[in-house]
Amino acid sequence: MLIDNHHRTHNYLRISLTDNCNLRCFYCMPEEDYHFMPNQQLMQADEILKIAKLFVEQGVTKIRLTGGEPLVRKDAREIITALGKLGVELTITTNATRVEHFVDAFEEAGIRSVNISLDTLQKEKFHLITRRDQFDVVKQNIDTLLSRGFKVKINVVVVKGLNDSEILDFIEWTKNASIQIRFIEFMPFDGNKWNRDKLVTLHEILTIINEKYSFIAAENAAHDTSKNFTLPGHAGSFAIISTMSVPFCNTCNRIRLTADGKIKNCLFSEEESDLLKALRNDEELLPLIESSIKSKHKELGGQFTKQFELIDADTIHNRSMIAIGG
Ligand code: SAM
Ligand code: SF4
Fold this sequence. Notes:
Layout: E1 12-16, H1 45-57, E2 62-66, H2 76-83, E3 89-94, H3 103-109, E4 113-117, H4 123-130, H5 135-147, E5 151-158, H6 167-173, E6 179-185, H7 202-210, E7 216-217, E8 226-230, E9 237-241, E10 254-257, E11 262-264, E12 273-274, H8 275-280, H9 286-294, H10 321-324
Parallel strand pairs: 1-2, 1-10, 2-3, 3-4, 4-5, 5-6, 6-9
Antiparallel strand pairs: 7-8, 8-9, 10-11, 11-12
Helix pairs in contact: 1-2, 2-3
The protein binds S-adenosylmethionine and iron/sulfur cluster.
């Protein structure tokens, strides 16, 4: 078992397959020229499998594939298939632009639930946010997944003045669609120009929804990062991931592995442990993993507190989100 000094058991591994992406979401990718990692710097398929197996031996029961965009990787299918044989709950977060090529692979690997990022229901705004014209493909792929019986969660990063005016439209979507909308508070990462004024908090999101809909707080599972809500009479539901205004660090069970094989024990941790280098040098990985978990800060990577009003994003040392793996 991987237990940190704050008595938290870590049984959920998020693996970034690549820092490459076919979209350019401004909150994720730095504005200045970003150079994707060269292939040899990335964990190769067999290395991912070896590292994942080791985590499973240490009690990991759930693995999420993420990125960058995991499905732009040429050997994504091979990796999904191999990880599907580990006997863990396998899930993926994707921008859904390439999902149509992977539905069968998902089914065969036992993936039942897919998280999809979609920050707007307006085609022109999609282009503004992602700098690519893929709105129709994403919508089509969401429908395909639903028709094939997948559980679909839609991740919406809420940014003030950009898409907070669409919160009610997203809720309306849940009336007939069996989806969960997950509103995510905008978080600060390198190069994404975060500031407090762009943040729409849990409280503000609920106030907006309350203008038009009644909702009920639902049970949260033990390690949920989201506060879940049901909407009477709706096929779908919604949730809020309130990392900034109401963090959930005390129940955190997550470990992250970046595409270049470094452990980040928290999304906001400054420290990283280079597992890939150790693997390539034929060194023991377990001591590195254990010391990384032991050194995990109590909250928010030790870089800031839930008093988000006081955050100066320039003082936070981290990678950009695309290089961490969301
Ligand atoms: N490409 C995939 C996607 O977009 O779903 C997976 C990787 S993406 C980095 C994972 C999640 O992180 C997405 O839901 C994205 O919206 C979220 N994300 C990225 N930058 C963020 C930020 N600054 N604040 C909050 N969420 C962010
Ligand atoms: Fe790509 Fe996902 Fe980041 Fe958007 S949020 S740039 S789709 S990795």
